[in-house]
Amino acid sequence: MAAKTCGTFLFCQSLLHQEGNSCTIQFMNRAAHTKILPFIITPVITLLDQITKYLISINLGIQEVAFSFFNGFLQIIHERNTGIALSLGASLPYWVRFIIFALLPLGVLGYACYYTLKTSTLTTLQRFAIAGIIGGGLGNIIDRIFRTQGVIDFISFRLYGLFGLSHFPTFNIADSALSISAGLFVFTLLVQTIKKTRPAE
After folding, report:
1. Residues 153, 156, 173, 174: which is the catalytic one?
2. I need a surface site. Which of 57, 140, 156, 177 has the fewest CB within 10 A?
3. Cβ distance 152 to 80 under 8 Å?
4. Domain that holds residue 191
5. pLDDT tens digits for 2-34?
6. Total domain count for the chain?
7. Catalytic status, residue 175
8. 132 located within any domain
9. 105: how many CB neighbours lie within 10 A of its CB?
């Protein structure tokens, strides 16, 4: 009788252990899924950026305007930028630009990807924002590595002298993704800070 009771106890203990392991595996799978899912937008952004740039490069000469909307307020124009925002660094030697504007950002994006996958402190929205930053960053880094004439920009807005500029600096899909994603990430940080500093009711 004692042997039968002991056997039943061991069987039940084994079942509980298996169920516990199953729950642990399911939890780990959900956690991994939550961390990986946001990166689905990274290749989408990079691919869309490269496709639009390719279409611009094969259909327009440099400085050629394809379309103009609202009396020139919005233009699709083929421009090249060997620097970064506002053409900063465009006059630097090629190897210096390659290191500063391609290799270093590539390392930063690699670390951002690693950190996002490892940490559990980020929200889902923050993970999507970082994935968007990586997608946009890769789009421009590809240009800096493989397009010797510089990054292709093609979206231009007229500012009519606002801030002393006739036009907003020409940009591309990658720039848009970077700006929107970075803004979203900063916004989520501000929201978290406000929540932490708000007195408990």
Report:
1. 153
2. 57
3. yes
4. 37-197
5. 555 555 554 545 544 555 555 445 545 666 778
6. 1
7. yes
8. yes
9. 16
